[in-house]
Amino acid sequence: MKRIPILLFNNTGSIICTLLLLLSTQILYAEQIAITNIAFELDNKAIKKILLAKSSNARLYFLKDGNKSNQFTRSYAGKSANSINRKWQRLVFSGRAKSPVIVEDMEEMINRVSSDSKAVGHIDANIHIKSSEVRIVK
Would you say residue 51 lies in a domain? Predict the structure, then answer.
């Protein structure tokens, strides 16, 4: 009688590699938190309304890293960054809003938010904010 090899997870090493790969994606992308200018009083509900374009009294800033922006929009609005972007593109096209600003990195995000009194952005939760003009939305 012939033996038929089982290829799916036949080796313990492949299971461990798969688990490490899944865990590493969580480590690479730290939780994203909302930040605003200190003059702009917002809560999580207000952030959701702004992201869903139901309130246009803010200027949105997104990181160039799409994975981080996606994590931010999913955690605050329950939608993907692409979905949020399409909604904002329609508003921009119709002349009812300004396009969200894309920034290169966390340092630029903090600098932009600190200098814009209507700014809403996001950063990694483990980043220390040195600017007294920026606050974390809770």
Answer: yes
Report d(CA 98, CA 128) in Å as an integer.
29
| Separation between Cα atoms, residue 133 and residue 90, nearest integer Å | 31
Of residues 1 and 78, more confidence is placed in: 78
Token reading at 134: 């920026």
25 domain-assigned:
no
* Count of structural domains within the chain: 1
pLDDT of residue 10: 54
Question: CATH no. for residue 53?
Answer: 3.40.190.10
Instruction: Classify burial at 124, counting beta carbons within 10 Å of its beta carbon; exposed 0-12, middle 13-18, buried 19 or more.
Output: middle
Domain housing 83: 30-136
Q: Tokens 């809403």 map to which residue?
A: 120
pLDDT beyond 90 at 22? no
Task: Report whether 112 contacts 121 (CB < 8 A).
Answer: yes
Instruction: Specify if 99 maps to a domain.
Output: yes
